[in-house]
Protein backbone atom coordinates (compact mmCIF):
# COMPACT_ATOMS: atom_id res chain seq x y z
CA UNK A 1 0.00 0.00 0.00
CA UNK A 2 1.11 3.54 -0.74
CA UNK A 3 1.99 5.63 2.35
CA UNK A 4 -0.51 8.37 3.21
CA UNK A 5 2.16 11.08 2.82
CA UNK A 6 2.74 10.01 -0.79
CA UNK A 7 -0.99 9.87 -1.42
CA UNK A 8 -1.36 13.44 -0.10
CA UNK A 9 1.40 14.68 -2.42
CA UNK A 10 -0.34 13.06 -5.38
CA UNK A 11 -3.54 15.10 -4.85
CA UNK A 12 -2.94 18.22 -6.93
CA UNK A 13 -5.75 20.19 -5.29
CA UNK A 14 -3.88 19.95 -1.96
CA UNK A 15 -0.68 21.46 -3.36
CA UNK A 16 -1.03 24.75 -1.53
CA UNK A 17 -3.55 23.68 1.07
CA UNK A 18 -3.69 24.76 4.67
CA UNK A 19 -2.63 22.59 7.61
CA UNK A 20 -6.28 21.98 8.43
CA UNK A 21 -7.08 20.89 4.89
CA UNK A 22 -4.13 18.50 4.96
CA UNK A 23 -5.27 17.14 8.33
CA UNK A 24 -8.75 16.36 7.03
CA UNK A 25 -7.35 14.93 3.80
CA UNK A 26 -5.12 12.68 5.90
CA UNK A 27 -8.11 11.49 7.95
CA UNK A 28 -10.03 10.77 4.75
CA UNK A 29 -7.11 8.84 3.24
CA UNK A 30 -6.54 6.78 6.40
CA UNK A 31 -10.24 5.94 6.47
CA UNK A 32 -10.42 5.12 2.74
CA UNK A 33 -7.31 2.95 2.92
CA UNK A 34 -8.97 0.86 5.65
CA UNK A 35 -12.54 0.80 4.31
CA UNK A 36 -13.93 -2.07 2.32
CA UNK A 37 -15.06 -1.94 -1.29
CA UNK A 38 -18.38 -0.36 -0.26
CA UNK A 39 -16.48 2.49 1.44
CA UNK A 40 -17.39 1.51 5.00
CA UNK A 41 -15.73 -0.08 8.03
CA UNK A 42 -17.11 -2.75 10.29
CA UNK A 43 -17.38 -1.72 13.92
CA UNK A 44 -14.44 -4.01 14.79
CA UNK A 45 -12.36 -2.44 12.01
CA UNK A 46 -13.31 1.01 13.27
CA UNK A 47 -12.22 0.16 16.80
CA UNK A 48 -8.93 -1.27 15.53
CA UNK A 49 -8.30 1.79 13.35
CA UNK A 50 -8.95 4.12 16.29
CA UNK A 51 -6.56 2.14 18.48
CA UNK A 52 -3.76 2.06 15.90
CA UNK A 53 -4.15 5.51 14.34
CA UNK A 54 -5.65 7.56 17.18
CA UNK A 55 -4.06 5.92 20.22
CA UNK A 56 -2.50 9.02 21.72
CA UNK A 57 -5.91 10.71 21.81
CA UNK A 58 -7.74 7.77 23.39
CA UNK A 59 -4.98 6.82 25.82
CA UNK A 60 -6.16 7.16 29.41
CA UNK A 61 -9.81 7.61 28.44
CA UNK A 62 -10.93 4.10 29.39
CA UNK A 63 -12.70 5.15 32.59
CA UNK A 64 -14.65 8.05 31.12
CA UNK A 65 -18.35 7.18 30.67
CA UNK A 66 -18.57 8.80 27.23
CA UNK A 67 -15.54 6.84 26.00
CA UNK A 68 -17.02 3.61 27.36
CA UNK A 69 -20.31 4.42 25.61
CA UNK A 70 -18.57 5.00 22.27
CA UNK A 71 -16.45 1.86 22.51
CA UNK A 72 -19.37 -0.28 23.69
CA UNK A 73 -21.29 0.67 20.55
CA UNK A 74 -18.32 -0.57 18.52
CA UNK A 75 -18.20 -3.81 20.52
CA UNK A 76 -21.85 -4.64 19.92
CA UNK A 77 -22.49 -7.57 17.65
CA UNK A 78 -24.02 -5.84 14.70
CA UNK A 79 -24.00 -5.90 10.94
CA UNK A 80 -23.97 -2.12 10.90
CA UNK A 81 -20.98 -0.55 9.22
CA UNK A 82 -19.44 2.84 9.89
CA UNK A 83 -19.37 5.33 7.03
CA UNK A 84 -16.92 8.23 6.74
CA UNK A 85 -19.34 10.74 8.26
CA UNK A 86 -19.87 8.62 11.38
CA UNK A 87 -16.14 7.95 11.58
CA UNK A 88 -15.39 11.68 11.61
CA UNK A 89 -18.02 12.22 14.32
CA UNK A 90 -16.23 9.54 16.39
CA UNK A 91 -12.88 11.29 15.86
CA UNK A 92 -14.27 14.65 16.93
CA UNK A 93 -16.00 13.14 19.98
CA UNK A 94 -12.85 11.33 21.08
CA UNK A 95 -10.74 14.43 20.49
CA UNK A 96 -13.02 16.62 22.60
CA UNK A 97 -12.78 14.30 25.60
CA UNK A 98 -9.08 13.62 25.23
CA UNK A 99 -6.49 14.59 27.81
CA UNK A 100 -4.20 15.30 24.85
CA UNK A 101 -6.52 18.11 23.78
CA UNK A 102 -5.65 19.94 27.00
CA UNK A 103 -1.95 19.66 26.15
CA UNK A 104 -2.63 20.90 22.64
CA UNK A 105 -4.52 23.92 24.02
CA UNK A 106 -1.53 24.76 26.23
CA UNK A 107 0.98 24.49 23.39
CA UNK A 108 2.44 27.81 22.34
CA UNK A 109 3.39 28.38 18.75
CA UNK A 110 6.94 29.56 18.40
CA UNK A 111 8.24 31.65 15.55
UniProtKB/TrEMBL annotation:
Domain of life: Eukaryota
InterPro entries: EF-hand-dom_pair (IPR011992), EF_hand_dom (IPR002048), S-100_dom (IPR034325), S100_Ca-bd_sub (IPR013787)
Residue span, EF-hand domain: 62-97
GO molecular function: calcium ion binding; calcium-dependent protein binding; transition metal ion binding
Gene3D superfamilies listed in its UniProt record: EF-hand
Entry-linked PROSITE patterns: EF_HAND_2 (PS50222)
Protein name per its UniProtKB record: SNTAN protein
Organism of provenance: Rhinopomastus cyanomelas (Common scimitarbill)
